[in-house]
């Protein structure tokens, strides 16, 4: 991976530092250097596994044990990871600038852990997690049954009977994430698009920008006039909208862009 010229980083830094309302929009690439696998690109999970067998409501209905086994593996993996320099720089910036909104597609909780460590007075609420969280469950009958709770205990996926069940209705509990074919939480979508409409600048980090409607958040900010700075290992559909597109590693570039 090449390193962008200092002049490009300086130009991007100037665009971001002038923003009173900064939108930071992230994807799996921001967590790559923490050891969390991405979905696409080199080493991406969707190269080796089929999303429709693991991350759809149909997959859960067909084989909940297999789906829980995969999410259990991801939970254990992420629990061993820690926020990297990119999460930390974003969290420090958000703690110091109340006009910052962090919108992430990630379900790993690393932005929220970094926000806690940075002492953000807004706490974990400073992060909009568009695709949910690995560390929560909701009833498989959601929204007909409203059971939804934090859950980070290990899940025994030996067979259907050992999987977690809903106390209220007895149905299976499922991971509290958004699967392909499912709608995003309307409150999260509103918060994300509202931040995009009103942003003075937008920093996009580590997303292939291929999954909708999430990818439209950054495009909306750009179309509403916010200069867009992209940090990614490779070009994406957002690159052509970017005022500055930086090719490189998030953990190196994001602190260079945001730290005082
Ligand atoms: P992807 O895996 O699609 O894209 C990750 C991006 O990060 C790629 O463009 C990589 O080039 C880039 N990248 C990798 N390492 C990097 C690094 N160290 N620094 C900077 N960039 C790096 O991840 P997302 O765009 O987040 O959805 O994927 C979107 C959604 O697709 C996910 O939220 C998930 C997935 O299926 C659901 O689970 C609903």
Please supply descriptive tags for the structure shown above.
3-stranded antiparallel sheet; 6-stranded parallel sheet; 260 residues; 2 domains; 10 helices; alpha/beta; Rossmann fold; 9 strands; SIR2/SIRT2 'Small Domain'; single chain; binds 2'-O-acetyl adenosine-5-diphosphoribose
Strands, helices and their partners?
Layout (H helix, E strand, L loop, with lengths): L5 H12 L4 E5 L18 H4 L2 H4 L2 H6 L1 H16 L5 H12 L4 E4 L5 H8 L9 E3 L2 E8 L8 E3 L22 E5 L8 H13 L2 E5 L9 H9 L4 E5 L11 E4 L2 H9 L2
Helix pairs in contact: 1-10, 6-7, 6-10, 8-9
The chain binds 2'-O-acetyl adenosine-5-diphosphoribose (OAD).
Question: What would your notes on this structure say?
Answer:
The chain has 260 residues and is α/β, with parallel strands linked by helices. The protein has two domains: 1-36 and 83-131 and 184-260, TPP-binding domain (Rossmann fold); 38-80 and 133-177, SIR2/SIRT2 'Small Domain'. Helix content is 36%, strand content 16%. The chain has ten helices and nine strands. The protein has a six-stranded parallel β-sheet, with helices on both faces. The chain has a three-stranded antiparallel β-sheet with strand order 5-4-6, with helices on one face. Helix 1 packs across helix 10, helix 6 (85-96) packs across helix 7 and helix 6 runs parallel beside helix 10 (250-258). It is globular, with a radius of gyration of 18 Å. It starts with 5 loop residues before the first helix and ends with a helix. The model has no long low-confidence stretch (mean pLDDT 95). 2'-O-acetyl adenosine-5-diphosphoribose (OAD) is lined by residues 27-29, 32-33, 38-41, 44, 51, 55, 105, 131, 178, 206-208, 210-211, 231-234, 236, 249-250.
């Amino acid at each position: 991976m090449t390193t962008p010229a200092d002049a490009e980083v300086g130009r991007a830094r100037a665009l971001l530092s002038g923003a009173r309302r900064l939108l930071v929009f992230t994807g799996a690439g921001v967590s790559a250097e923490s050891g969390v696998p991405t979905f696409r690109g080199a080493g991406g999970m969707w190269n080796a596994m089929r999303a429709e067998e693991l991350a759809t409501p149909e997959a859960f209905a067909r084989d909940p044990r297999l789906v829980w086994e995969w999410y259990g593996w991801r939970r254990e993996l992420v629990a061993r990871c820690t926020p990297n320099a990119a999460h930390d720089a974003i969290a420090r910036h958000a703690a110091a600038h109340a006009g910052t909104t962090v919108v992430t597609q990630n379900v790993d909780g690393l932005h929220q852990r970094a926000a806690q460590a940075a002492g953000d007075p807004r706490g974990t609420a400073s992060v909009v997690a568009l695709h949910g969280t690995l560390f929560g469950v909701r009833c498989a009958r959601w929204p007909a049954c409203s059971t939804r709770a934090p859950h980070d205990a290990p899940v025994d996926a030996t067979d259907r009977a050992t999987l977690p069940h809903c106390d209220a209705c007895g149905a299976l509990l499922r991971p509290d994430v958004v699967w392909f074919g499912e709608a995003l939480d309307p409150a999260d979508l509103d918060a994300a698009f509202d931040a995009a409409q009103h942003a003075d600048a937008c920093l996009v980090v580590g997303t292939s920008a291929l999954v909708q409607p999430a990818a439209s958040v950054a495009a909306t900010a750009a179309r509403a006039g916010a200069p867009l700075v992209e940090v990614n290992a490779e070009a994406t559909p957002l690159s052509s909208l970017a005022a500055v597109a930086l090719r490189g590693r998030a953990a190196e570039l994001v602190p260079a862009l945001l730290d005082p």
